[in-house]
Amino acid sequence: MAVTMTVPASERTPGKSRALPSALWPWLLLLPAFISLASVSFYPIFNGLYLSFTNRSLITQDNDFIGIANYVQLLADPPFWNAWWHTIWFTVISTGLETFIGLAMALILCETFAGRGMIRAAMLVPWAMPTVVTSKMFGWLFDGQHGIINFILLHAGLIDQNVNWYGSPDTALTTIILADVWKTTPFMALLLLTGLQTVPKSLVEAARMDGARAWTIFWHIRLPLLMPTLLIAGLFRALDAFRVFDLVYVLTGGGPADSTETLSTLSYKVLFSTLQFGYGSAVSTAMFITEGLIAVVFCIFLVRQIRKTT
Amino acid sequence: MTGFKKTPADSKMISQSIMLDRRQLLLGAAGAATLSVASGFGIRPARAADRTEISFASASFFGKEGLGDLVKAFNESQSRVTVKFIELPPPSSSTEVYQGLVQQLARRNGTPDVFSQDVIWIAGFAAAGWALPLDEYFPKDKRAEYFPGTVAACTYGGKLTALPWFVDSGMFYYRKDLVEKHGGKVPETWADMATIAAEAQKAGDAKFGYLWQGKQAEVLICDAVEIIASNGGSILSADGKSSVIGDDAAVEAIQFLYDTINKTKISPQNVLSWDEEPSRQPFTSGEAMFMRNWSYVYPIAQDPKASHVVDKVAVAPLPHFAGGKSAACLGGYQLGINANSKKREAAIEFLTWMSSPETQTRLALNFGLAPSRPAIFQDAKLKAEQPFMASLQSVFTGATPRPITPQYAKVTLALQSSISKALVSGNVKAELQAAATQINKIVG
């Protein structure tokens, strides 16, 4: 340092006396971050993509490049499409319900009332619970023999005999969706609550003075201003719901009759039970692409929304 | 995967612990010190080099002692071989154990020299060329000392590629008091079982006649193998190159399971979402007359804290169809030698010791793992200490392996899906024939 200080400025010819041009410095400083990111993020993604073009299997010891053969097989694979539709159905219904209920909860929590802080904290309990615990809990709640849900419904006269929630293809996926809604609605409510708090109070007050009713205030002031938050929260939730694994794995294992098989459980089975890394990577890549498409749809709406408001 | 629940599923991490006792460790350190000093003087080091060191990888089983203690006992029993124990996760984390083993064996570097494996992996390891054929070391007369079903499960492509270690299998639990009340005879055919169960249900003695496991999981395949084999059918043809699950014997068998829910109504619809534990609970709380399950249930049924049916429960071989023979799905872990091991003689010595009558008796007494040698069931000490296990000889005699194919992992997923569909929809023939087509593609 002392040396560079003593060198007169006039003697420096830019770009020649230095080993590196100044434009390169920022890149050089970014390099460690890039390398660490690349090694834990890009490398696995590209390696997974590469694997999906091979027939790699730990058991048969194959490891050849086979082009798009895996994808051709995938497109004609009924279990894959079965799982794909279940996953889409799960994502749409659970995200929809969570947004709707979450919004209602956020609107209530936005008002001032006694004990609001307590309620806000308590509300987060389901979300803070490990999903495996939630799964076991719902397993007991909806147990076909001793479950309290059956008990209540039976005594309320809504059903005339115990329903086998997880043993029937008609109800298994719905029950899993319910468990997911219970668990993640608080997360949605929390995100939307922060969004609601950014809506200027003055606007709401002005509307009230003009004699607007609660519904009008919500529909014309709060909802439009909440829209970007709503879309971002929906995007997060949808991408998260699409990866559903623990609930299915613990509660049904994909059954009965494949009625709750989702892409995550299917790829887990292909990858880690049968150790077909090639085909399993193709399933994962298809999942990745579908998630990308969902994200794009949300982003289109989001960009439109932002353009509208700015 | 085989339904062993003796060990809790605590750690999912593959922990490697080197089980050497302190004395040997000190000796080793002293040996190393001597080596460095001695080599300076040109003296050939003795002791340390005399013992061949091999490694043994296994899922961790424990009871009164652990596998590490067993390995230690072997190391102390002789002075030729030192075994290093590589501990894999407990058998309840079967998928992780499988992955751990496959990763090590696929390296083909000879580690581990000896390993234990679930019965359903044997064919896969053999086909990949990872398991050493053992025929020359264990000729026919030695193989005759084991249950025939376990030897069949250890044989792939006409070669013995694993050595039987310990077994478990499906078995028929019944309530002694209820059987006494309804005819006094333990049913031997499925039809009799259904009749008696329906009677008991009608008389209000039991809420459920018969409990089994219909969850879309590995246990469903075990239940299916048993009932199909008890009708003279099977899942794969004798050569293993095609599936015969669409044949009448199999269809009739699965139809019987469907009927237990929908026609004879001796089983609740809930069995379709039950694996071992959910089906065990109603039985030990006294709500059911018959149940198919593994051997782990018995100690629970005899525990007054957990059971309402203490001393009222007994076990028999599973029923069969008229003209068929009782079959029990084989579980348990068997031993194998890495084909790439460079220390074969030492590995064989350890393998022989592990599967010897003495070690198997010790496994039975201290670990609660049932021997694969019928002769041990006559052992006086076993009869005194583990009377229940000693009574299981007739059950294990009917032990039937699941399909023996290197593609088992794919076959079982296809089967789980199809059989579950058959049991839900009732289109048994159509679903099983679809399964046969699918399996033909996998194994053909």
Explain the overall architecture.
The complex is a heterodimer of chains A (310) and B (444). Chain A has 14 helices and no strands. Chain A is an all-alpha fold. Mean pLDDT of chain A is 87; it is low at 1-7. Chain B folds into two domains: 22-165 and 332-400, D-Maltodextrin-Binding Protein, domain 2; 169-329 and 407-443, D-Maltodextrin-Binding Protein, domain 2 (3-Layer(aba) Sandwich). Chain B is 43% helix and 14% strand. Chain B contains 19 helices and 14 strands. In chain B, a hairpin with a 2-residue loop joins strand 4 (155-156) and strand 5. In chain B, helix 9 crosses helix 10 (248-262), helix 9 packs across helix 18 (408-425) and helix 10 (248-262) packs across helix 18 (408-425).
Task: List key phrases describing it.
heterodimer, A: 310 residues, mainly alpha, MetI-like fold, 14 helices, 70% helix, disordered N terminus, B: 444 residues, alpha/beta, D-Maltodextrin-Binding Protein, domain 2, 2 domains, four-stranded mixed beta sheet, 14 strands, 14% strand, globular
Secondary-structure blueprint:
The complex is a heterodimer of chains A (310) and B (444).
Chain A: H1 2-6, H2 24-51, H3 69-75, H4 78-110, H5 116-123, H6 125-128, H7 131-141, H8 148-155, H9 172-197, H10 201-209, H11 214-242, H12 246-251, H13 263-273, H14 277-309
Helix pairs in contact in A: 2-14, 4-9, 4-11, 7-9, 9-11, 10-11, 11-14, 13-14
Chain B: H1 22-41, E1 52-59, H2 67-77, E2 81-88, H3 94-106, E3 114-118, H4 122-127, H5 140-143, H6 148-153, E4 155-156, E5 159-160, E6 166-169, E7 171-175, H7 176-181, H8 190-202, E8 208-211, H9 218-229, H10 248-262, H11 276-284, E9 288-293, H12 297-301, E10 313-316, E11 328-331, E12 333-337, H13 344-354, H14 357-367, E13 370-371, H15 380-385, H16 387-390, H17 393-397, E14 399-400, H18 408-425, H19 428-443
Parallel strand pairs in B: 1-2, 1-3, 8-9, 11-14
Antiparallel strand pairs in B: 3-12, 4-5, 6-11, 6-13, 7-9, 7-10
Helix pairs in contact in B: 9-10, 9-18, 10-18, 18-19
Family (chain B): Belongs to the bacterial solute-binding protein 1 family.
Pfam family, one (chain B): SBP_bac_1
Keywords (chain B): Periplasm, Signal, Sugar transport, Transport
